[in-house]
Specification:
heterodimer; A: mainly alpha; Helix Hairpins; elongated; B: mainly alpha; Four Helix Bundle (Hemerythrin (Met), subunit A); 6 helices; 78% helix
């Protein structure tokens, strides 16, 4: 294996930045949540790479990645339920139209 | 260039290309399918880094369940695949600059630290070791995670219920 840890970390940093950009600019709740999932994925790649490059003895990175998957699955399920409820009540899932808590 | 590094660059190219497509494409359905490709390529990276269990979980939960769930929501909340989202251009430039600076900062931090790297070895039986680790040392967080999943399940049903 001639991949270095730095290459993986740079790849994950690029993916995290792209996900941040999407989460801050897209208007649809669905795409915002998918971009947050992309950021979770970048972090998971980091953790798995750390577990691999630290010799696969403790495997703490992989255990932590499992917990991150649990939390992001919870988050995604709740976000989708909120999106359906918003569509039912407000007829839109565009983020900039959902401003009833502004005043 | 060995097979593993060729595979790594292949998956990295897929990841970056389809992440940009998730963010930039205007069609909601294309965006979700690009996210599907990103999640699958991530599973490939997990297999490459000797995390077989995580790779299978990634394919089953993310590429399978999450994509289906998101597609259901897209189906229920939009008027089909023709639904388009308008970009807001003035905001984009500042966010783009912010994200470039943020990514550059991440890269600088990564490159400036001397990571203590052990010699990577290809182990067999990583899944067994992972199970031992998870059910012995991290048993309490595991149970807390199951309660969290239950709470999210109940919460999602209560939120999305038609009453």
């Amino acid at each position: 294996m001639d991949i270095t840890l730095n290459q993986v970390l740079i790849l994950a940093a690029i993916l995290f930045s792209i996900g941040t950009f999407g989460a801050l600019t897209r208007k649809s709740i669905v795409i915002v949540v998918m971009c947050i999932e992309l950021m979770f994925n970048a972090v998971n790649i980091n953790l798995v790479a750390f577990a691999f490059f630290s010799g696969l003895e403790a495997l703490r990175g992989q255990v932590f990645a499992i917990f991150i998957m649990v939390v992001s699955a919870c988050e995604l399920g709740l976000c989708m339920a909120i999106a359906i409820m918003l569509y039912r009540n407000r007829d839109t899932i565009q983020v900039d139209r959902i401003n009833m808590m502004k005043w | 260039m060995t097979v593993t590094s060729a595979l790594f660059y292949f998956f990295a190219a897929i990841l970056i290309f389809f992440s940009i497509k998730v963010v930039t494409t205007r069609n909601l359905f294309h965006s979700v399918m690009s996210a599907f490709a990103v999640l699958l390529a991530t599973a490939g990276l997990f297999f490459l880094f000797n995390a077989e269990f995580l790779g299978v979980v990634q394919i089953l939960i993310y590429a399978g369940a999450v994509t289906i769930l998101v597609l259901f929501v897209v189906m229920l909340t939009t008027a089909g695949p023709k639904y388009r989202i308008v970009w807001e251009t003035p905001m984009n430039i500042w966010i783009f600059i912010f994200v470039i600076l943020f990514g550059g900062m991440l890269g600088l931090v990564v490159l400036s630290i001397e990571w203590p790297v052990a010699k990577p070895v290809a182990l067999h039986g990583v899944t067994e070791a992972l199970a031992t680790r998870l059910f012995v040392e991290y048993l309490l967080p595991f149970e807390v995670a199951s309660i969290l999943l239950l709470a999210a399940l109940v919460g999602a049903i209560v939120l999305a219920r038609r009453d």
